[in-house]
Specification:
By secondary structure, the protein is of the alpha/beta class. It folds into two domains: about 120 residues, P-loop containing nucleotide triphosphate hydrolases (Rossmann fold, 3-Layer(aba) Sandwich), CATH 3.40.50.300; about 70 residues. Helix content is about 55%, strand content about 15%. It contains nine helices and seven strands; from the N terminus they run βαβααββααββαααβα. The strands form two sheets. A five-stranded parallel sheet has the order 2-5-1-6-7, with helices on both faces. A hairpin with a 2-residue loop joins strand 3 and strand 4. The longest helix is centred in the middle third of the chain and has 23 residues. The relative contact order is 0.21.
């Protein structure tokens, strides 16, 4: 039986990484889109050669410089399309390999732009983590080096939380760690009951 694919998403600062950690602690394998991109950008990563040809200014020491890439995208947002044409197929291949190697009844896919990129079509269900906007803002601006301008740019590329709520199969409010941990345990049990019903 192939693993039940649960797409985990949420805007920046909503508690996605924390929630993914509770799934991992419960023994559920988690594929992390951001970690996959880090692997692709690292020295020898699959994205380095094509990006060195399409966006040569972002390569430093045989790896993609995320700092140089951020600067380029801020200066010329049209380059997002070039970046996505290179990176998205590589990320999809990484995700497919993870699923093929998974020996679990459930697999979680931590994907920030799950709805924005239509990847929810590949999932059996989706889980949105969410929190009030003021809490989200406080969390994000507490990160080292984060500015109001960076937060605004990130949010401009993410679907509004209310639209994600309308599309999600399941929703967890990330107000306290014990509540999130309990909600994750309940959702795992719910999925397993549904699979064995």
């Amino acid at each position: 039986m192939t693993a039940f694919r649960l797409g985990l998403t949420g805007s920046i600062g909503m508690g996605k990484s924390t929630t993914a950690g509770f799934f991992q602690a419960a023994g559920i394998p988690v594929w992390d889109a951001d970690a996959a991109v880090h692997r692709l950008y690292a020295a020898g990563g699959a994205a380095v050669r094509p990006m060195s040809q399409a966006l040569p200014g972002v390569i430093e020491g045989d790896a993609v410089s995320r700092t140089a890439l951020r600067a380029l995208l801020a200066q010329d947002p049209a380059q997002f399309a070039v970046l996505e044409r290179i990176v998205h197929p590589l990320v999809a291949a990484d995700r497919a390999q993870f699923l093929a190697e998974t020996v679990s009844d459930i697999a979680v896919f931590d994907i920030p732009l799950l709805f924005e990129k239509g990847t929810e079509a590949e999932m059996d269900a989706t889980l949105l983590v969410t929190a009030p906007a003021d809490l989200q803002r406080r969390r994000v601006l507490a990160r080292p080096g984060m500015t109001e301008a960076q937060l605004a740019l990130i949010l401009s590329r993410q679907m509004p939380d209310r639209d994600k709520r309308a599309r999600a199969t399941h929703i967890i409010e990330t107000l306290s760690l014990p509540a999130v941990e309990a909600a994750v345990a309940a959702l795992i049990a719910y999925i397993r009951e549904g699979r064995h019903a």
